Amino acid sequence: MDRIIRCITSDGGIMAAAIDSTYLVATAQQIHKTSAVATAALGRLLTGTSIMGSMLKKEGATVTLKINGKGPLGTVVAVADSKGNCRGYVEHPEVELPLKANGKLDVGGAVGNDGILGVIRDFGEGNPYIGQVEIQSGEIAEDITNYYAVSEQIPTVCALGVLVDKTDTRRILAGGMLIQVLPGANPEDTDKLEKNVQKLEPVTSMLAKGMSIEDMCRTALNGFEMEILDEFPVRY
Questions:
Q1: CA proximity to 197, closest of 140, 141, 153
Q2: Does 53 have pLDDT greater than 80?
Q3: Whole-angstrom Cα distance, residue 139 to residue 110?
Q4: CA 11, CA 223: separation in Å to the nearest integer?
Q5: Cα–Cα 20 to 30 A to 218, which of 10, 87, 167, 201?
């Protein structure tokens, strides 16, 4: 079963969350019959939305991410609750694109980069919070990072990965991390975090090596004292 954890440094300056979303993404693939590139795009959005949902502080609250960059996939949507459980869809799940020159799936080309990433947080108390930013790349992780920087002024690093086997697209590995510098963090800690992030391997590489989500957070927060705030299972 997939899990998500949220961690914080001992001085409260940096928060990190990590998720293994392999089964969540595989379930979405089975339900929506997505192609490899559609699986990667929807899987990244589901993974990022799940992490953002787990950061909601109110039981029953939800967060919705909707991205449409005028690419062939059309609109991609994901909705998560406050425990990180997530569902979503992609408008054109059958879309296939050639691999990029580096052999990776062309998620950015499939999503497109001429449009808006919208974020809706609904706390069930009347008007939901709605934010939106222009899409940067369509690769989704970069767009979530940009959303936090522009719309919420929170320095954030978002890393999302979905690995789809080229010979058997039912074989999937998926996960993600979201790291934020909180108010009051000192500049030395921010510099140390930046150096850690620069050395961080892709999420799917870490998972493929057998690293746990705890290992991933410890690697990102190397040199800091880390405390796990909470942990819970997530599902589609």
A1: 141
A2: yes
A3: 9
A4: 13
A5: 87
